Amino acid sequence: MKAVRVHHTGGPDVLTLDEVPTPEPKSGELLVQLESIGVNFIDTYQRQGLYRLPLPFTLGVEGAGIVRRTGPGVNDIRVGDRVAFAMTQGTYAEFACVPVGKSVVLPENVHAETGAALMVQGVTAHYLVRSTFPLSAGQTVLVHAAAGGVGLLLVQICKILGARVIGTVSTEEKALLAREAGADEVINYSTADFEPEVRRLTGGTGVDVVYESVGKATFDRSLNCLKPRGYLVLFGQSSGPVAPLDPQVLNSRGSLFLTRPSLAHYMRTREELQQRVNELLGWISRGRLRVTIGARYPLDSAALAHKDLESRKTTGKLILLPRS
After folding, report:
1. Among candidate residues 153, 149, 260, 264, the one with its CA nearest the CA of residue 215
2. Which domains can be identified in the chain, with CATH numbers?
3. Helix/strand/coil percent split, the chain, to 5
4. Nearest to residue 181, comparing CAs of 55, 95, 268, 291?
């Protein structure tokens, strides 16, 4: 089979399309023929060596497709079922072996692209507002990168739960997308400093929570946007890792809370993953949540997908297609 591999870490150009053996499912695993593959920032961190894996390795942690074989001990998923899955290394490929515990069966009316788009970014948006900082109606949130893959979903889910949403974006085109997703206020940080704008928009009070995926470039100002006892939820670092922080800073700025969640800790069981996906699919079926596919790339253009993602020019979810 064809697979996108990393033989040495670096920029997007280190990615190679290799011929490798098709894997065999072990106990509790599914062999999935990929139809859609999600592209995520974690893939770029692995490629750069920020998240280290033994070399060489196949990129990708998310996808959706058709079960072609099952390993021993698999009883409730059958050959021919369509599944989506997350946090399984090696999905930039034509086939992947996937643990049953990280998979969900897709309803017939859900496209594989939607399944692939939901498993990392959708479930991330869900746990951020349902578990990391359980959001209540009437609260005010700040969502950075509000037109990105997670951002567009976050904005919509926050509005479903009755929150006031302030989003930040880098262009007027992205501002339009964030507003269409339901953001009450959108700040273009290319033309305005978001920190004083947030203070102005909240009457000097600040927000209850900042969902922070940018990291280094926005972290300090995000802390300044919080009301006393507010939460900074740092779940990404698209601009680079945050510098070490003296905990006394949290005290001096209002007894703030800081957390750095990870998807793996919010899908520790198949039941938890299924519950999150069920709620997401329910919102989609009722027309309350929309998944935006920003761009599609053939598998051999994975390097271009990474370049586009890291340039922060993209909106919505980026998808790789094993068969164009």
Report:
1. 260
2. 2-120+270-321 (3.90.180.10), 137-260 (3.40.50.720)
3. 35, 30, 40
4. 291
Q: Identify residue 17 by its one-letter amino acid code.
A: L
Written as six digits, the tokens of 198 are 């947030």
Tell me how far apart the 2 most distant CA atoms of the chain are, in Å. 60
- With tokens 């586009």, the residue in question is 308
Residue 293 in contact with residue 316, Cβ under 8 Å? yes
Strand order through the sheet with 15-19: 15-19, 2-6, 57-58
First to last CA, the chain: 15
pLDDT at res. 238: 79
CA–CA separation, 272 and 255 (whole Å): 31
pLDDT bin (cut points 50, 70, 90) of residue 127 is very high
* Percent of the chain residues past pLDDT 90, beyond the cut: 88
pLDDT of residue 263: 93
pLDDT tens readout for residues 275-318: 999 999 999 999 999 998 999 999 999 999 999 999 877 888 99
The answer to whether 82 touches 133, Cβ cutoff 8 Å, is: no
pTM equals 0.90
Listed as own residue / partner, the contacts of 107-114 with beta carbons closer than 8 Å and 24 or more positions apart are 107/281, 108/82, 109/285, 110/281, 110/284, 111/36, 112/35, 112/36, 112/64, 112/65, 112/82, 112/84, 113/36, 113/64, 113/291, 113/293, 113/296, 113/319, 114/284, 114/291
**Does 324 have pLDDT greater than 70?**
no
What's the residue count for the chain? 324
